[in-house]
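Example record

The entry below shows one chain as it appears in the dataset: sequence first, then structure tokens.
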Amino acid sequence: MWNSVKFILLLALIIITIVTIDRKIENFPGWKKWFAAAGIVLALFLTTLVNGPPSVDNRLFFQQPSSDKAAGRPAAVKPDNSNFSAEENVPEQAVSQENNSQENNPQEDIIREILFTPVDEADGNPDFKAFRDRLLVAVREKDLEFLKKHVDQNIHYSFGESGGINGFLKYWNLNSNPEKSGFWSELEEVLKLGGTFDDKEKSSFTAPYVFSRFPGSYDAFEYAAVINKNVSIHAEPRSDSKIVGGLSYTVVKLEKDPVSTTSETTNGENFRWFTIRTLTGTEGYIYGKYLRSPLDYRTRFIKKDGVWKMTFFVAGD
């Protein structure tokens, strides 16, 4: 503040001086420009003398970047799960805890080669959204009668048999022992993973997004999707083994290795471990709960005569 006041006073003094000199030498007009130039030089000199030379903040050039964006790395992106009607799976032993400490976080460099985030377009058609929510309730309650009303008469349930709805019910033991059928858990997982509409009219919906939106440039037989965030890559097929990296919502290559048959039970859930390689070359093992192939079970619902019908429920190719 004081420096500014001094500068203003100094400038006023210079102006008065120049005007006074100008009047004294008005008979010598050729001298005016020289005195004006001398006055400007004098002003700059006195300003430097009073305030000191201008300083440069070296931090502008040498300060370390304080964010991923400043460092040229992609910022973390939070997937939009707001449309999902089911809770997101919470990572446990096979998923590292988020921690900013490099000492405690072996996954400080989370790899994001391809951002393949969950997609769920169900909200685009309130009628379908209401149906799917009701179907999820029926699945959890194992409501066979509701399911039958929404299974198409010519449903495809395998790439060999084609027995329609009766063959479908027999294939999944839904007629003989519906309470023990594995169909319910498979369909629930598919529905929880969202999906996309197939047409502008939004009268056909395919789930999950891992199948309907899988990047076409990757062979579905060789690659799979990581379906959670901060999923640990382990050095061995055990949840207590060393963590060598991590992934969030991306695509990985499945290595053909007998170890993929190794399974582990965690909190009552049993999944296989898969040998994977990231697109940048990191190799390791991922717990199957957080990995899904586009060739796993998928389904499609089409509205026919005012009723949503399941037209296929298949896996493989």
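Notes for this example: The first helix runs from residue 2 to 24. The mean pLDDT is 78.
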